[in-house]
Amino acid sequence: MADYLMTNPDTDFISLVVPVFQEGEALQTFLASVRHVLSQSAVPYELILVDDGSSDKTWAIITEEAKGSSQLLGYRLSRNFGKEAALCAGLEKARGAAVIVMDGDGQHPASLLPEMIRIWRATGADIIQAVKRTRGRESFSSKVGAALFYVLLEKLSGYHLKGASDFKLMSRKAVDAWLRMGERNVFFRGMTAWMGFTTVQIPFEVAERARGQSTWSYLKRLKLAITGITAFSSLPLQLVTFAGALFLVFSVILGAQTLYLKLIGVAVSGFTTVILLELIIGSFLMISLGIIGEYLGRIYREVKGRPRYLVTESTEEARALDKGSA
């Protein structure tokens, strides 16, 4: 992959990476819109679809569409590894001089693709990032949760990702640099921000889903938020240390006060203060153990070194079998 530009003279070749999960209802509409836009732009491209273990007709549609288009490549993961893992699979398969990552639910407008390619060619920037003007139609709780996450991430890690999306164009240099980061706890948009390459931002409006319902549950969003925070900041661990020191100072002061009152014979009887302190300290200890356990769990997953994903079948294999049988 890294030597692609040395062996392929077409430095305008674009790879479009699209992770999909349970998108059978809207996938054909999405593919038609992308092909229409790219054909009008006269851009040489490949379209890489990564099925993240869908149980609906998503893979059947991918294989059927691939039969009529050599530009479409499909890869099916052995199970649902998550969107971030599916993105890794697509980026590792991409051969383009630039790679565009977008969602397959229609909320990333295909009409923006020519503008992203034009800016990349004109400026030579390594990352063209589409930034949301608004978050589209979301529940109030989802918007509040997203806002809280981005504020926490910025305060803890220093990376400003408010409005950022996975809809972006990356140069071959940026893609190769991203692929060299081998961690299993993947947070795609945070990792691209960490690289620090020249970035140009373009705003876009989040479109309505063409069909179907979002598969991003609150639990999945929470897991991604925890991954983002723990992958880019160790400050929560430092806060545990700081809070422990604060409790130590407080306990020394309270112990000295209690001993003084006991010596002068005016000690307060009863256990209310003791019980409250035990509850507060006990709660703090449990939270602290949870934070430490989260980091230990992520270290454990990294040390095991398991692959980010497993591919169970691909359209390339199907084409090879068809040629062999012919």
What would you note in describing this structure?
- The protein is α/β, with parallel strands linked by helices.
- The protein folds into two domains: 4-141 and 159-214 and 307-325, Spore Coat Polysaccharide Biosynthesis Protein SpsA, Chain A, CATH 3.90.550.10; 235-304.
- The chain is built from twelve helices and eight strands.
- Strands 7-5-6-4-1-2-3-8 form an eight-stranded mixed sheet, with helices on both faces.
- Helix 2 links the parallel strand 1 and strand 2.
Topology:
Layout: H1 4-7, E1 14-20, H2 27-41, E2 45-51, H3 58-67, E3 72-77, H4 83-93, E4 98-101, H5 113-123, E5 127-132, H6 140-157, E6 168-171, H7 172-179, H8 188-195, E7 199-204, H9 218-232, H10 235-263, H11 272-304, E8 311-314, H12 315-325
Parallel strand pairs: 1-2, 1-4, 2-3, 5-7
Antiparallel strand pairs: 3-8, 4-6, 5-6
Which key features would you list for this structure?
326 residues; alpha/beta; Spore Coat Polysaccharide Biosynthesis Protein SpsA, Chain A; eight-stranded mixed sheet; elongated
CA-to-CA gap between the ends?
30 Å
CATH superfamily of the largest domain: Spore Coat Polysaccharide Biosynthesis Protein SpsA, Chain A
User: How does the major sheet shape up?
Assistant: 8 strands, mixed
CATH architecture designation of the largest domain:
Alpha-Beta Complex
Helix content: 40-55%
Secondary-structure element order, N to C: HEHEHEHEHEHEHHEHHHEH
What is the fold-level CATH name, i.e. the topology of the largest domain?
Spore Coat Polysaccharide Biosynthesis Protein SpsA, Chain A
> Oligomerization state of this entry?
single chain
